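Cross-check.
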Amino acid sequence: MHNYTARISWTGSTADYTSYSRAHDVLFDGKPRLRCSADPMFRGDAGMHNPEDLFLAAVAGCHMLSYLSLCARRGVRVLSYTDEARGTLAIEPAGGGRFTDVLLSPVVIVDDEADASLALSLHEQAHARCFIANSCAVPIRCVATIEKRTGERAPQGALA
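Predicted model, tokenized:
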């Protein structure tokens, strides 16, 4: 079992809802401080990361790291991996809300000798092994594209 600790630190005054600062620090032992805020729709600073950004980055990053691990173990030589992850946040009229959908769209470039169909299938295993995805109630979909270094595009795959 592994334990993780995050410290959140905020100072200010909530005397007025419209003007209190949403800026806060997220601290992890031995790592750089993250200066964060609320999303601008919640009166936060658009120039800072917000919890929604960090959630989406955690989902996408965990999938990528799980995938790269599987590729390395199975002999699929990945040369680059990019993803433009998207999430949909639904706000409830009474307040609160939840993410209703997360879509990962990784584009993976593999060595010319790589088995593109194996590279594609490993996304499903990565999704099943991802600690963050396994901890979420929101549906997480992945539509991956595998390309060989020469630019030859292999079939796309999707998983839900």
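The first helix runs from residue 51 to 74. The mean pLDDT is 92. Passed to J.P. for a second look.
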